[in-house]
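Reopening: structure tokens for the zinc ion complex, inputs below.
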Amino acid sequence: MFFGRRFPVEKEEETLISTEIYSCSDDSCIGWMRKNFASDDLLCPMCGSTMDSGVKDLPEI
Ligand SMILES: [Zn+2]
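Re-run output (same inputs, fresh job):
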């Protein structure tokens, strides 16, 4: 489901791809990583908490 994003976009030519990621299970932490680059232990690189799988729109690499 998509909701309108009303904040201005400076680089509209940038293509965002829905990418599988792991995000930190701690709501107060912004840590996440791409599944492709996830470490074997699946712990947050910022705080060491466990990670939950999810999807994030990221620039194509
Ligand atoms: Zn974290």
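The CA atoms of residues 20 and 55 lie 5 Å apart. Residues 16-59 form one domain. Marking as resolved unless the reporter disagrees.
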